[in-house]
Amino acid sequence: MMRIVFMGTPEFSVPILEALVQGGHQVIAVVTQPDKPKGRGKAVQVTPVKEKALELGIPVYQPARARDEGFIEQMKELAPDVAVVVAFGQILSQKLLDVPRFGCINIHASLLPKYRGAAPIQWAVINGDAETGITTMQMDAGVDTGDMLEQVVIPIAPDETGGSLHDKLSAQGGPLILSTLKKLEEGTLKAVPQPSQGATHVGMLTKSFGDIDWSQDAAQIERLIRGLNPWPSAYTRLGEKTLKIWQAKVLDEEPDGAFGQVVEAGKDRFLVKTGKGVLQILSLQLEGKKRMDTEAFLRGNGVEAGTILGSLERRQ
What we know:
The protein is of the alpha/beta class and 316 residues long. The protein has helices at 14-22, 48-56, 69-78, 94-97, 120-126, 162-186, 218-227, 294-300, 312-315, and strands spanning 3-8, 26-31, 36-38, 43-45, 60-61, 82-86, 104-108, 116-117, 131-138, 147-155, 201-202, 234-238, 241-251, 262-266, 269-273, 278-286, 292-293.
């Protein structure tokens, strides 16, 4: 049993916190991002990790800056054996990394050194990778550059979305960190430096990244749609309204027309021309409406063949 400080913020981190508690470790504190106002009413929302920590009766710390001396002193007083860090959301200083007896171990949602950074799950889908995984890593002062400890490989299904892959990887994080901590206690853990070859860095995704460029190949756009489902979502413009695309299928057809042009719209057939091939829209959501399948959408919205999708800026 180890004395652990757990550092994490989003839903992805929650099953891993639960696994540590259920695995018999003593989680002496949880560190998460400060509460933030959210939504139209600006009601203060606690992080998913804080919510779970309070449910489990674990003390919660929410430093605005984890590198501040005051917080580092608090961590020294806790005297943890190890800190487990999962999507915490702040860069940790070397002084903080040095506080736990065994340092800080990060659980990262990719097969490092590929996809260092903030959005590894979505990029694995967007890039059409056949597999991804989880890596436990001994943290250093760089961004996801520390020595690798253990990995588990997860195949990516043909219909995988960012959301479904998120859940698969989150579920694997708990068993992997328990294995890593067991080997750490036994003294059998072997750290492997990350190779520089194959290292890539991916930044945070923004909503604007989901603006579909219809001049791209249909296969690229279809992967973007899956990778950004459920957030931040892929979208285009239908007239003056935003049209989110939730599911689509690639067709090997090359009709005449402009990129983004609706080449067929009838019954359950909603086909859009792309830079290469045609995208068949299967599930979509018009601004202010609920998500629906194509047949229901076309019954209630007069979309005609020849309509050009996309913002004016995209079309120029």
